[in-house]
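hey m, so remember when u said the tokens were messed up on ur end? i reran from scratch. heres the input so u can diff it against urs
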Amino acid sequence: MGDITAVLIVAIVFSFVSFSVYLKYRTERLRSGADQLESGLLDENIALKAKTLELERRIQVLESIVTDKNFRLDQEINSLSG
């Protein structure tokens, strides 16, 4: 009975240590993946902000063209001739 108890205690301790090492390994893998994902999201966010600014500038240029007096006069002349 004493030998079986000793074997069970060693097996339980070994299992606990092995499981702890496995959990530490999985935690590190998840952290590194999360860091890469966060970095990718930050890069994408910066790119989207730059694209938004570019599109806002283009809209401002288009608005200035459409509200230009010469453009409106040209449109009126074209509508009269058509």
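this time it looks ok to me. The mean pLDDT is 87. if urs says something different then somethings off w ur setup not the seq
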